[in-house]
Design a protein that fits this description.
GO terms for molecular function: GTP binding; GTPase activity. The chain is α+β, with helices and mostly antiparallel strands. The protein contains 21 helices and 40 strands. It folds into 5 domains: 353 residues, P-loop containing nucleotide triphosphate hydrolases (Rossmann fold, 3-Layer(aba) Sandwich); 105 residues, Translation factors (Elongation Factor Tu (Ef-tu), domain 3); 69 residues, Alpha-Beta Plaits, CATH 3.30.70.870; 143 residues, 2-Layer Sandwich (Ribosomal Protein S5, domain 2); 118 residues, Alpha-Beta Plaits (2-Layer Sandwich), CATH 3.30.70.
């Protein structure tokens, strides 16, 4: 297809004749390269596959970097621009209009391009062989945190992009912590070094203090003449300088070894030697093998082979602990530093086989997927959590599992219908195979399998393990569902128990904090609006829709103002729904202020033509975090705690025993019915229809008195529990013992020194918040883990401060505060007016606190 050739010390991109025939009268065809011919498809090698994501704060350059990666890999023939709305991964109209990423986009390319890589022999780098890269570009705005979460759930590695001017920003810390949760190996790329005010040294030291990892500087910036414009990078691993021609497309790279650098730029040569020494010393603290290699070369750092350093970096980061952070440099907008970053993806980030085995739940058991597939989990005793030797019949059941995958994203495409993005963890999902959804217990047919190229796609015959792909046309699958294909069984009934309950670790959905009313323009439009909202909810589970019982209004809840604004735009513009969204409101909570007396309810009525009869007793009290631990029968649900008391459910309870329960009502069924009833009652409080919070409910269900033969069904038990809890809440409301709670946010505000006083005064006086701390960006005094003074970074020739954490004229300050969410609505505009447009903030839910006095009256 294409090749890289060396000509007079230059790396030059040389397109083949086949890639030139797509030119059309002087214009580059910007269509996807892989669409041209199905013959370009090849069977991906799992060892040469990288499932990676790009994570960062908003405006750090994620989409711009992605666009350069696609161009240099031969995936596109033109570099798109975020400002022009011509990028591949930002294809939604709302994304192109705002210039931000709203939903994560998946794209597959090869690096080096197919046919361009050399053969891998001996100690040559992995990046010499073509790899399949499944790349996901994630949003950076805090309102779309769920998009980042569900992408991180299925990734094997990540690139964290840092703004060389702003440094480590608040949202960067947040997504870094999320990546730590999933133990994802990461590398850091300091971007925008071509801009005025860029400070590589300060950013590296903020990586140490803010991200709590030791920065291993693999590249240093190359400033022309020491204090000129940003022209390239110094490679501390290969001991070479890489220079990009100014104003080009970045494909022409001039390379210089140490001898050539002595004539070209002696200052860079000396700094590069310092960088190599610091890099090796840092790695030796984590890797004893490299220390032994260093001793073999008589402590001569410059003689250590580059491949030994690459192997050491890979070994240190592959566990995903974040203890060591390789740092690279560049300026994506100026097309500098992207190709070495692509090489780093191949060299350092893991393939799917090097990641920990996925965790699964199988009925009451929890184990790893490989334990199940290798026959080390007993299927005959679901209650036994011990890994045991299986019987022959159990082994035959497991061998019939053809594949196991996780649905991590659902998109409603206007041309292709519903697209379900999946990550396959075992086996291979084939076209037209039957897929069993273990969450919904339904079977669907995988009619079409696609390899997505952002908004475009290529049809494929199967999706093997370790790959990311798309199933088109599934009617029921949702985000977080586990999909398995199984042979030798009835498609309608699915695999036998307990395999039909096999579930991969689910994706946690954060609770919404804002809501707005949706009003259809007419009664005839109401049904269409409801269907469109269901489509939105299937795409984005962090949105919620509730129907107000009294007014009948549809309330749409989301993670923030921008989140709801985008949902409204999609509702009206993309789905053409004839509806209007009201003002954005705050989602409050209700709480109980005193214990209630027991309330017993007998439910006796017909449900769907069948008689139902059951009884239940409920009490409710405020939940005290300092109280003694509750019994094992207590579960936590949406901030509330539910304790179930079922006499005779344990053999130690007496002669009644669990054997007294009717066969149609096993103990797990009764527990589930009681919990569902209580949760339904707690979803709407008696005072303002807000959900209950921090409440402790005790449900007493006595089988000897609350079961009435065949008339007692799970639906009747659930209804009795719901009515009993509702009765206790009504009793407390009549005695004025129901209070209101409001969400209080953790807010991190980044601003310049001159705006600090105005911001602190505004937060503490006008908005009723509490300022918790004032910090310098990059100050590590509160960390105590990494001594920033020991961290190596080349000096910044243009930095305003000294780079040692001390305050300088351009030093950013960070304000940490706790503020009621109501006061943060519309805060971004106010912050920009206070800071001259330079201030940013990010917030997350801290807790719900009770309202009192004037604030309660205002609500």
């Amino acid at each position: 297809m294409s090749s890289l050739v060396m000509r007079k010390g230059c790396l030059i991109w040389q397109p083949s004749f086949k890639s030139l025939i797509i030119r059309r009268r002087g214009q580059f065809c910007s269509n996807i390269w892989l669409r041209q011919s199905s013959s370009l498809q090849h069977e991906p090698d799992v060892k040469r596959t990288r499932n990676i994501g790009i994570i960062a704060h908003i405006d750090a350059g994620k989409t711009t970097t992605t666009e350069r990666m696609l161009y240099y890999s031969g995936y596109t023939r033109r570099i798109g621009d975020v400002d022009d709305g011509s990028t591949v991964t930002d294809f939604l109209p709302a994304e192109r209009a705002r210039g931000i990423t709203i939903q994560s986009a998946a794209v597959t390319f090869h690096w080096p391009p197919l046919g361009a890589g050399a053969s891998s022999k001996g100690n040559s780098p992995r990046s010499h062989v073509s790899h399949t890269v499944n790349l996901i570009d994630t949003p950076g705005h805090a309102d779309f945190t769920f998009e980042v979460l569900r992408s991180l759930r299925i990734l094997d590695g990540a690139i964290c992009i840092l703004d060389g001017v702003a440094g480590v920003e608040a949202q960067t810390e947040k997504v870094w912590a999320q990546a730590n949760k999933y133990s994802i190996p990461r590398i850091a790329f300091v971007n925008k070094l071509d801009r005025d005010g860029a400070a590589f040294e300060r950013t590296v030291k903020e990586v140490a203090s803010r991200l709590r990892g030791w920065p291993a500087v693999c590249q240093i910036p190359w400033w022309a003449g020491g204090k000129g414009h940003f022209t390239g990078v110094g490679d501390a691993i290969n001991l070479s300088g890489l220079e990009w021609s100014e104003g080009g497309d970045g494909k022409l790279i001039q390379t210089y070894d140490l001898d050539a650098l002595s004539k070209k730029d002696p200052g860079l040569r000396d700094e590069l030697v310092k960088a190599r020494i610091a890099l090796v010393e840092s790695l030796c603290e984590f890797d004893e093998d490299l220390l032994s290699t260093w001793l073999e070369y008589n402590d001569d750092v410059l003689k250590i082979p580059a491949q030994a350093i690459r192997d050491s970096i890979r070994k240190c980061i592959i566990d995903g602990s974040g203890r060591l952070i390789p740092v690279f440099a560049g300026a994506s907008f100026r097309n500098i530093g992207v190709q070495p970053l692509l090489d780093a993806i191949d060299d350092y980030l893991p393939d799917p086989t090097e990641r920990p085995d996925p965790e699964i739940s199988l009925g009451d058991q929890e184990c790893s997927l490989s334990d199940l597939l290798d026959g080390r989990v007993s299927l005959s005793t679901p209650g036994d959590r011990q890994v045991a030797k299986q019987t022959h019949s159990s082994k035959s059941l497991v061998t019939q599992i053809e594949s196991c995958a996780l649905a991590f994203k659902v998109v409603n495409d206007p041309k292709r219908g519903v697209l379900v993005y999946i990550r396959v963890y075992s086996g291979s999902i084939k076209r037209n195979s039957n897929i069993w959804n273990t969450n919904l217990h339904v079977t669907e047919r995988a009619q079409r399998l696609l390899q997505m190229q952002a908004s475009d796609a290529v049809e494929i015959q199967h999706i093997p393990a370790g790959q990311i792909g798309v199933i088109s046309g599934l009617k029921h699958a949702r985000t977080g569902d586990t999909l398995i294909s199984y042979s030798g069984t009835n498609p309608k009934s699915g695999p036998p128990a307990p395999l039909n309950t096999l579930q991969l670790r689910p994706i946690d959905v954060p609770p919404p904090v804002f809501f707005a009313a949706i009003e259809p323009h007419s009664l005839s439009e109401e049904r269409n609006v409801r269907e469109v909202l269901q489509m939105l909810l299937r795409e984005d589970p962090s949105l919620h829709v509730n129907i107000d019982d009294e007014s009948g209004q549809m309330l749409l809840s989301g993670m923030g103002e921008l989140h709801l604004e985008i949902a409204r735009d999609r509702l009206v513009n993309d789905f053409k729904a004839k509806a209007t969204m009201g003002n954005i409101e705050i989602s409050y909570r209700e709480c109980v202020l005193a214990p209630s007396s027991p309330q017993s309810i007998l439910f006796d009525r017909e449900v769907a033509g069948k008689k139902g009869k059951a009884a239940c007793t409920a009490t409710i009290e405020p939940y005290d975090e300092l109280a003694p631990p509750k019994p094992d029968s207590t579960i936590e649900q949406d901030g509330n705690h539910i304790t179930l008391q079922i006499p005779g459910s344990n053999p130690s309870d007496g002669p009644l025993g669990s054997s007294s329960l009717p066969p149609s009502l096993p103990l797990p069924t009764i527990r589930t019915a009681l919990i569902n009833g209580a949760v339904a009652a707690l979803a709407r409080g008696p005072r303002r229809n807000f959900p209950l919070h921090t409440s402790h409910i005790t449900l007493l269900f006595n089988p000897s008195t609350d079961i009435f033969g065949a008339d007692t069904t799970p639906a009747a038990i659930s209804s009795a529990a719901r009515l009993a809890v509702t009765a206790t809440l009504t009793q407390l409301h009549n005695t004025s013992n129901i209070g209101l709670m409001e969400p209080v946010m953790n807010v991190l505000i980044s601003c310049n020194e001159g705006s600090l006083g105005a911001i602190v005064h505004d937060i503490s006086s006008a908005r009723g918040g509490h300022v918790l701390s004032l910090e310098n960006e990059g100050n590590d005094s509160e960390v105590g883990i990494i001594d920033v003074k020991r961290v190596y970074a080349p000096p910044d020739p243009f930095a305003s401060g000294s780079g040692d954490g001390k305050e300088g004229p351009g030093q950013l300050r960070q304000v940490t505060a706790r503020v009621p969410l109501k006061e943060m609505v519309g805060y971004l505009r106010h912050l920009r007016s206070l800071t001259g447009g330079r201030g940013t903030f990010v917030m997350s839910v801290d807790r719900f606190e009770r309202l009192s006095g004037l604030r309660e009256k205002a609500v």
